[in-house]
Specification:
It is built from 13 helices and no strands. The chain has about 325 residues and is mainly α.
Length: about 325
């Protein structure tokens, strides 16, 4: 799009933002998102123009309005998960899709490898885990591993480990995205071989009803962390019109927001694993309710809600 047309389409909106300031946190957040999107477009196609400088100033003013009162920090905290993170999910829907596809492929590789190589499960999961699980199966308690230790200590240890794994998966993306794909590969192989192991023992459905109580949120978060790493790596590989350093900073910032944004989801997953999964004899309806609710939440928050916000912003921009 030529710059005069870009300005013509958005001038009324920009003018209204300047002439009609607002103190409403939600409205400020929406305006800030719109202006930063316009600024990103202008920086890409008209990096040295007066339009870009003007939008930069307008974005700075909105940024100051959002942060000017320390008492509004709680609102800013809410705004991140209500607007910023979903918008990032929409902006980077392709890396999210790539991460999902990679992970599913690696899961199938893990399952097929376990099927055709009887030693593969031990190689991936470890002799200790397999021997312990075989003993638990013999005792009639195949998922007894989730009952070991106290709930609180187990919850804290799992939460810390999950957050660590997700952040490492993200940071590894700086190795041209390959690092994050490698961690998706490792976790995919592990999940695939793990599930095949229980299916081969006739415990496939039971493993889904038990393990996926926490696994739905946990595995989804790993895939999102992989996407954050791909965002980081792709910013280095494909800088587009930016300098490579500017693109890397932008990718690192957005990828970090995505990686940090899933921390609450990981904490909830750890809570389920520490306090809920251990009740392996819970009613089927309760297990199905928990894992289905978790899956629907991920689909809504990562796909449906971001698209809804995007359509709303586009509609408002067209009206302006």
């Amino acid at each position: 799009m030529r710059e005069p047309l870009f300005v013509k389409q958005n001038a009324a909106k920009w003018s209204s933002f300047e002439q009609s300031p607002t103190d409403d946190p939600d409205e400020l957040a929406e305006r800030f998102i719109q202006i930063t999107d316009d600024l990103a477009y202008a920086k890409t196609f008209y990096p040295k123009s007066k339009t870009t400088a003007y939008l930069n100033g307008l974005a700075a003013g909105l940024h100051q309005s959002i942060y000017k009162n320390k008492s509004e920090k709680s609102n800013r905290f809410l705004t991140f998960w209500k607007y910023e993170l979903p918008i990032l999910f929409k902006t980077y829907q392709k890396p999210l899709l790539y991460s999902f596809i990679f992970f599913i492929i690696f899961c199938f590789i893990g399952a097929l490898s376990a099927k055709y190589d009887e030693n593969f499960v031990r190689l991936i999961l470890g002799d200790g885990y397999v021997d312990m699980t075989n003993a638990n199966i013999a005792k009639g308690d195949p998922f007894g591993v989730y009952k070991q230790g106290g709930e609180t200590l187990m919850f804290l240890a799992i939460a810390a480990n999950n957050i660590y794994v997700s952040l490492v998966t993200f940071v590894s993306g700086v190795i041209f995205s390959v690092g994050s794909v490698y961690f998706l590969f490792r976790n995919g192989l592990m999940l695939g071989s793990f599930q095949y192991y229980f299916f081969s023992k006739g415990l496939g459905l039971k493993s889904i009803l038990v393990v996926w109580i926490h696994g739905t949120l946990e595995i989804s978060s790993i895939m999102i962390a992989g996407a954050a790493g791909i965002i980081l790596g792709n910013s280095l590989l494909f800088p587009k019109t930016y300098t490579r350093m500017v693109s890397l900073k932008r990718g690192a910032k957005d990828g970090m927001k995505v990686a940090i944004g899933i921390v609450p989801i990981l904490i909830v997953a750890a809570f389920f694993e520490g306090f809920v999964t251990r009740h392996t004899e819970m009613p089927v309806w309760l297990s199905v309710t928990i894992l289905t609710s978790s899956l629907l939440f991920i689909i809504w928050y990562v796909i449906i809600y971001p698209n809804k916000i995007y359509k709303t912003l586009n509609h408002n921009a067209t009206k302006n």
